[in-house]
Design goal:
Blueprint lengths: L9 E2 L1 H9 L1 H9 L9 E2 L1 H22 L4 H5 L6 H11 L8 E11 L8 E13 L4 E9 L7 H6 L1 H13 L13 E7 L2 E9 L2 H20 L13 H6 L17 E2 L25 E2 L3
Parallel strand pairs: 1-4, 2-8, 3-9, 5-6
Antiparallel strand pairs: 3-4, 4-5, 6-7
Helix pairs in contact: 1-2, 1-7, 3-5, 7-8
C-alpha cells in the first residue's frame, strides 16, 4: 500500500527534517497526525514566551520590509523586542538587492513521482532579488531569535539550508525576477543574538545537483513505507535522548523518557515543535503553486 498522506499535503523542511532525525517522529506527526499530551521543553512558561517573542519579532520585521515606518514600529515594542528590532534596523545587510523584496513568501514546486502528486514548499522570511540585462541575484534571509546563534556546521547539516535555495531556483522562472542560476543565489541566517555575524551559504550548480539527489532520496525512502514499522525510531543512544528525544512530545510513547528537555540547553538545530494545527500548513490552497 502507498504511504497514506493527504492529497493536498506538501513536504517542507520541517517534515523532511523530522524524518531525517527520526522516521518514527515523521510517522506520528505527519501520517498519524497524533496529538500527544507532553511538553516539548521546560520550563513551559519560558518556552511559550520565547515562541511569542519570536512571532512578534517576525511580524515587526515583515511590516518594516513591506513599507511601515521602522520608528513607529519600534515605538510599539517593549524589551527585549525593542533591542532585537533596533539590532535589525542597525544590522540589516546593506548589500541586499532592493529591486524585488518579498517578505513571508511561500513557494512550492512539484515533488515526487512522475504524476507530481506531492509538492515541496518553503516559507521564506525574506527574499531580496534583482535583475538587469546581464545578471541576476537573489538573497534569502532567515531571521533567528534563539538565545544563541547556531553553529555554522549544524546549519549546514540542516534541511532548511538544502530546501530553501533549491525551491527558489526551481520556482524562479515563474517569479517576478525571472529564472535564477544556482550560483546567483545565497542564503543567510541572521541572529538577534549575533546581529553583526550572519551565517552565509553561497549556492552553486554542484550543490543544486547534490541537493536534488538528497531530496529525491529522502522522498523515495518515505514513500517506500506504508506502515509504522517502516518508520523506525532513531537509535536509542545517549546523544539521541539528549538532543532529539528530550525535546520530542512522543518520547514517553517511545519509551525514551518522561521529562522534557531544558530550554536553556536546547540546540535550535535539533528542536522540533509538533504543532498539529500548522504541521500540514502547506497545502495546494495556500501556496503559490508553480507550473508543472
Amino acid at each position: 500500500m502507498p504511504l497514506s498522506l493527504p492529497t493536498t499535503f506538501a513536504f517542507s523542511q520541517s517534515s523532511l527534517q523530522a524524518y531525517a532525525n527520526c522516521p518514527r517522529r515523521f510517522w506520528l506527526a505527519y501520517v498519524e497526525q497524533l496529538h500527544w499530551p507532553a511538553l516539548e521543553t521546560k520550563p513551559f512558561d519560558a518556552y511559550e514566551e520565547q515562541m511569542r517573542l519570536g512571532s512578534r519579532f517576525h511580524q515587526a520585521v515583515r511590516r518594516a520590509e513591506t513599507g511601515f515606518d521602522p520608528q513607529l514600529l519600534a515605538d510599539t515594542l517593549d524589551y527585549p523586542l525593542d533591542e532585537w528590532f533596533a539590532a535589525y534596523t542597525r544590522h540589516r545587510p546593506d548589500d541586499l538587492p532592493s529591486q524585488f523584496v518579498a517578505s513571508e513568501q511561500v513557494l512550492s514546486i512539484p515533488f515526487g513521482n512522475e504524476n507530481g502528486r506531492y509538492r515541496l514548499a518553503a516559507r521564506y522570511d525574506l527574499i531580496a532579488a534583482e535583475r538587469d540585462e546581464e545578471n541576476a541575484r537573489a538573497v534569502i534571509i532567515d531571521w533567528k531569535t534563539t538565545s544563541r546563534p547556531t553553529r555554522r556546521s549544524r546549519l549546514q547539516e540542516q534541511l532548511q539550508t538544502v530546501v530553501y535555495p533549491f525551491v527558489l531556483v526551481e520556482a524562479s522562472e515563474s517569479l517576478p525576477w525571472g529564472p535564477l542560476l544556482p550560483e546567483q543565489v545565497e542564503m543567510r541566517y541572521w541572529f538577534t543574538a549575533a546581529p553583526d555575524e550572519p551565517v552565509i551559504f553561497r549556492y552553486s550548480a554542484d550543490l543544486h545537483a547534490a541537493n536534488r539527489t538528497r531530496l529525491q532520496g529522502l522522498l523515495a525512502e518515505m514513500l517506500a513505507g506504508s506502515v509504522q514499522a517502516d518508520f523506525p525510531k532513531v537509535p536509542d543512544t545517549e546523544q539521541s535522548r539528549q538532543h532529539l528525544c528530550a525535546y520530542c512530545v512522543y518520547r514517553s510513547r517511545c519509551d525514551r523518557g518522561i521529562d522534557a528537555g531544558d530550554l536553556a540547553q536546547v540546540d535550535d538545530a535539533d528542536f522540533f515543535v509538533v504543532d498539529l494545527e500548522s504541521s500540514l500548513e502547506f497545502t495546494l490552497d495556500d501556496v503559490e503553486a508553480m507550473a508543472f
